Amino acid sequence: NRVRCEWGDPTDKRSNGFQEQAVKMIELGAKAIMAQTACPASWWEYCCDQAAEIRDHVPLSRNVSSADGDAVCPIEELSSGRVSRRSCHRYLDHLVLVGTPCHVQQKPEATKGSDNMTVNRHKPGIAIKMIGDLPMFLSPFTGKTFRSKGYIKWDAPPGCSAYEFFGCKNPGAMPFLGTP
Question: Looking at the predicted structure, is the pLDDT value of residue 33 above 60?
Fold first, then answer.
């Protein structure tokens, strides 16, 4: 494996530059996700996890040599090929940013014995994380989580959280950062 461990000197702040840059990249990714989806500030951990996952599944620019941009992904390289490039692409295909409002298909057994006229086969959900290439959603009304690959993403207006998009009370509003 080509994992490089770099130890820093606790008495010299300049020796931790590599580690600080790695943390900065995750922090910037999490802030971008939070700004784009206007998710509650209490969801920062979900956003950091997703920013790290995205960085694991996207090739580094130093590894790209082909014109189409395809190259080995960090997670593929770290796992010595146990995580395939196809699974990285599948993850990115199903990726839903944390805090995105979606309408999610219900399982057929949840609507068994009904037709399309009597039961709505979709329910509102807010994306909270990915388990492999399977998105996990949170119901804005009940607070229960569920998973599905059948969903439609909605584009909420800028500054509108998914809770506001569905007409629910936002559990933790974003702090006021001033007018742009």
Answer: yes
Which is nearest to 70 in space by CA: 48, 92, 95? Answer: 92
Gap between the Cα atoms of 65 and 62, Å rounded = 8
Query: Residue 125 — φ and ψ, nearest 5°?
Result: -150, 150
Name residue 169's amino acid.
K
pLDDT value at 26 more than 70: yes
Q: Which amino acid is at 46?
A: Y
Distance CA 110, CA 147 (A): 13
> Which two three-digit tokens encode residue 66?
């082909």
Overall average pLDDT of the 36-47 stretch:
90
Are 67 and 131 within 8 A, CB to CB?
A: no
pLDDT tens digit sequence for 125-145: 999 998 888 899 999 998 899
Q: Is 148 exposed, middle or buried (0-12, 13-18, 19+ CB in 10 A)?
A: middle
